[in-house]
Amino acid sequence: MKTQTIFTTVEKDLKILNQNLRSMVGARHPILNAASEHLFSAGGKRLRPALVILVARHTLGTQDVTASHRRLAEITEIIHTASLVHDDVIDECMTRRGVNTVHSLYNNKIAILAGDFLFAQSSWYLANLDNLSVVKTISKVITDFAEGEVRQGMVQFNSHISMSEYIEKSFYKTASLIAASCQGSAMLSNLNHSLQNKYYIYGKHIGLAFQIIDDMLDIIGSYSSLGKPIGSDLKNGNLTAPVLFTLVESSHLHYLIESEFENDTDIETAVKIICNGQGLKKAKDLAEEHIQAALSGLPQQSINNNDDNLYSLVMVGEYILQQIH
Predict the structure, then answer these.
(1) Residue 216 maps to which CATH number?
(2) Is the pLDDT of residue 106 over 90?
(3) What is the pTM of this model?
(4) Which element (helix H / strand E) includes 56?
(5) What's the rounded Cα separation, in Å, for the pair 103 and 94?
(6) What does DSSP say about strands 99-100 and 95-96: parallel, antiparallel, or unpaired?
(7) Bridge-partner residues for 100, per DSSP?
């Protein structure tokens, strides 16, 4: 099930978004401008802005999506992209979305500055929404990113971290932005606080499911689908759901991780252990639990129920799961 199938109702909106992103982040300095252009030309799933527009269409009903909703969708993608630039420097990734990362094209300094520039641009556009509640909600996400990176860095190659620690880190690094952007879209639709929180919960659990499946792909995906080498997270000592589940049943995996994959074949051996165990199945089950939690809290009626958009919101979970098939 392809993204465009799920997001048919917002296909035109996403085309407009892609056109606007380049003009929004255009920088006066040619290096920063080239870095920004390179980032957005690589594309991506655009899951986050699509959810913003879907929530907007579902909650507004027959009304047109407002300019503020569209701008929030764009801000969300800029913030996400800025975080990826910094992540790639920290994780020393050479490719992202199938193209060279900014720091591999230029250097770490340029990449950090490019990420900072994108965060600054997103903050400026966010402030110009003139909605203090939305500003507070989305601004918190940027601090969550930093919190997530620090937490991840402190437990690298630590085979004794708990599943709850992993979920908490995944919230900060991924689910926080999706949750906040869904809630922000509901805020812009002037829904009451109770309904706003329901969209937040929906986004939170969709975000956690998305991260768990993404972590599975690090083990079983392919370069063509990921745009980066297999086992990148594992090699960097970032222990994810399938790894943590497998650790319960494999002492040898413990040894490989604690020795920080000192031999050239250790990563390949670790991947085989994970694929031959129950870790991947348990990770998928966990992702499905979060998808069910997202759907159970999704408001079936808001202001005006639009079945097509509600259907797409429901089917996002199915789309996430099908990434591993």
Answers:
(1) 1.10.600.10
(2) no
(3) 0.90
(4) helix 47-60
(5) 8
(6) antiparallel
(7) 95
